[in-house]
Amino acid sequence: MKKLLANLLRRFRVLRYDFLVTRQDTFPQTPETESDELILVESGAIQKWACLSCPGGCGERIALSLNPDRRPRWKIKTDFWQRPTLHPSVHQTNDCGCHFWVKKGQVHWCKGGRPQSPMEKAE
Prior knowledge:
Pfam families: BubE (PF20137). This protein is mainly β. The protein has one domain. The strands form 3 sheets. A 4-stranded mixed sheet has the order 1-2-3-4, with no helix packed on it. Strands 7-8-9 form a 3-stranded antiparallel sheet, with no helix packed on it. A hairpin with a 5-residue loop joins strand 5 and strand 6.
């Protein structure tokens, strides 16, 4: 219900986000996630993975480890609307080369981190 309301508020430009969190207990098997979905894989209170589609439009699925005992690792927090904040930034090492932060569900591009080619999908 909260996600439906968030989508409605987004349509009326009251709430801004590029990603909302969807929680599940298994790693996603499909190669692609929805463009505005960040899948948080967790088991009970243990967060394991954050999976999202690259916002640069290359189609790559990004899987970020949330395991505190592994490196590299990320931390994720969500607000009331399930908008994620990731720390640290995400830097793609593929041809896309995207480098960005996700704060309150919005993508914030690092300097020089936005793809040079017109990969981004128009809304």
